[in-house]
Amino acid sequence: MILKQTLHYNQTLKQTLKLNQKILKSLDFLKENTDDINKLVQKVLETNPFIESKSTVNYDSQQFIESFSSTHTLKEDLYYQLSALSYTYDQSIMEYLIESLDDAGFLSYPINQYLNDLNINEDTLSKHLNILQSLEPCGVGAEDAIDSILIQLKRNNKMKSYTIFNRFKDTILTQNYSLIKKETGLKKEEIDHLYYEIRSCNPFPCNNYNTSNDRYISPDIAISVEDSNILITPVNQPDIMINDKLFEEVKNNKKMKEYFNEANFLIENLTKRNQTVLLVANELVKIQEGYFLYDDELMPCTLSQLSNKIGFHESTISRTLNNKYYTFHGETYPLKNLLVSQTTSGDSSDSIKKAILEIVSNEDKTHPLSDNKILTKLNELELHCSRRVITKYRQQLQIPSSSKRKQLK
């Protein structure tokens, strides 16, 4: 009986070891968030005799379990769809595009920035954008809500509506039927049908993936200010060690050696991950020093610029920033928020967004400003961008259009 039990025990160890090795070797530690890393560590703690926890943190708490109850993220679904495609594409370009998507599934940067950061021509970028925009949900990878509607109309072969919306998008947003009728010669019934097709599109098709309110987020670092000094402190990191003494007792056992190698592999990769996150965070905090010390506007900083400063490839930094968070003044923020694009004129997107918020908050509520008038106000402040950028930033800030902001006296 004892011999039989021992044999069964060894078989179970072998199966578990195979699973753990597969997970560890296929895992991109840089891309994983703190919760996923801690979940992995908890599994290894339960199966590997050489890994021990130096702290009393319970990674299997109810709060931790709930953080993994949500459905797949948008980016996870996009990677899954991408893996099933038969098209030829550059993996690093597709990864950069997917990781650059904001919470609404839109491109975060101007097209010129993608060309510069990826060092590719317009044809290559267009090819890879078309692949991204061919994925579900239809409209993902658009520049903004308007572009998302255009993608949906084109995908659904609503070419007449596509042409009208592309040509008269400003007019359609103001619901000026008569101008479209005059310019195109279309009858009111035809225009009504085109409007119906346009309205049937979802300007924010990726909103169903927004589960941030239900998901527990564990920050990787805490940022604080003491005596005008910015402190960066790692938090929620697994505190584990290898039991070398135990290995000395069983080192001649082949299976135990495999477990020991697994333990070393895990700790080595966790150490590299945590060092890389700290290095990238430290450089970002240096760049955004004025923001943390004096609440200044965020400085323009792109992946390419950060790459040049640190010496890492853009894809490495992109994976490092993926699903990483920091706390500051009791609030939790995505670390990638410290990356700020700039307009073609060189102004930071952060400064323009703050100015838009200020302009809208001080406008006459009975006569709210259109995007064109907001653009004029920004130019007066010597902040320059296009009207389309204004619309994009306004939507990102969840500011309704002027017609919806209007208040009756």
Task: Give the N-terminus to C-terminus distance in angstroms.
Answer: 88 Å
Shape: globular
User: Unreliable stretches, pLDDT < 50, 5 or more residues?
Assistant: 1-19, 56-70
Q: Percent helix among the residues? A: 55-70%
Multimerization status: single chain
Number of helices: 20
* Count of the domains: 3
Please outline the major beta sheet.
Answer: 4 strands, mixed
Q: By helix and strand content, what is the structural category?
A: alpha+beta
Order of helices and strands: HHEHHHHHHHHHEEEHHHHHEEHHHH
How many strands in all?
6
User: What is the topology, as strand order, of the major beta sheet?
Assistant: 3-2-5-6
Give structural attributes.
409 residues; alpha+beta; four-stranded mixed beta sheet; two-stranded antiparallel sheet; 20 helices
Please give a structural write-up.
This is RNA polymerase sigma-54 factor. The chain is an alpha+beta fold and 409 residues long. It folds into three domains: 20-66 and 216-335, no CATH class; 72-210, no CATH class; 349-405, Arc Repressor Mutant, subunit A. 56% of the residues lie in helices and 6% in strands. The strands form two sheets. A four-stranded mixed β-sheet has the order 3-2-5-6. The chain has a two-stranded antiparallel sheet with strand order 1-4. Helix 1 (2-26) packs parallel to helix 13. The longest helix is centred in the middle third of the chain and has 34 residues, at 254-287.
Compile the SSE list and pairings:
Elements: H1 2-26, H2 34-47, E1 51-53, H3 62-66, H4 74-83, H5 91-99, H6 111-118, H7 122-133, H8 145-155, H9 159-173, H10 177-184, H11 188-199, E2 221-226, E3 229-234, E4 240-242, H12 244-250, H13 254-287, H14 289-294, H15 303-310, H16 314-321, E5 325-328, E6 331-334, H17 349-361, H18 371-380, H19 387-396, H20 402-405
Parallel strand pairs: 2-5
Antiparallel strand pairs: 1-4, 2-3, 5-6
Helix pairs in contact: 1-13, 5-7, 5-16, 8-9, 9-11, 18-19
